Amino acid sequence: MPTTIELASPWLQGRTFASWREDFDSRGYLIFERVLSPDSVAEIRAALAPFLARDLTGRNDFEGLKTNRVYALLAKSPHFADLAIHPLALAFAEAELGQSCLLSALLAINLHPGETAQPWHFDDGGAKMPRPRPALGISAFWAIDDTTELNGSTEVIPGSHLWDEQIVEGATKPADFTTRTTPTPDRDPGNRPDAVKMTMPAGSLAIAKGTLWHRGGANRSERPRLIITPQYCAGWVRQLENMSLAVPADLAQKLPERARELIGYSIHPPFMGHVDGVHPKRLLQAQGDVVLKRSAS
Known about the structure:
3-stranded antiparallel β-sheet; 6-stranded antiparallel β-sheet; about 15% strand; alpha+beta
């Protein structure tokens, strides 16, 4: 069976995976353009449409008061599992976090016109461990729309994954998760000359280390900007989404095997993640067998 890196080779542009990792280790992020076909992008957009139509906006300044966030995507369509286990994203996650890595979150983020810039943050900041340190997570950003200078493309600070405990101007603070302040489009305390907007055409993939400072940009265009972000973590780190509840067992049974492993039907050596002393995938299989017997009787 080919390795994840071998499966990712069609998108490595003739370079070795090791050379891409050197760039990743240096900059903290990478962009691969037009990984998905236009047809695939259209299918993903169609699968998301009924959930975006609910127009549920963010609950606080961090989520964005003019932003739709659709969580628990693995429970909503098989198209989203294909993004989570795409070999290009997964190759970097496994290389950084180990084969036992988990899917920490999988969500869509749709920025509407007038949305302001998000506070600066790094995605594995929930792990209260001193920096500098190795990343405990990897974030992937799939562009479903073109992400541009104007429509809120994710902004990164290259090399900031190597920084120590310094806090940047405009960084996330506890109140950002509890308050709903009226956006002020022209005020941006986090504006930085060294920030880079990750602009890319629809179907592209950006990957960032969990220690990289970044933020969602302000949408100054006249159209929404849609991305899907699978976020991975080391096998011993708590996931952002409670996948065992977000994806019920009957739906998990229908997922590809690698997707099941990523949401927790796997073991981080030597035995982290067991269920009553049993490997969780065996328990899931046993539950599936019971359902089959009942339906046949």
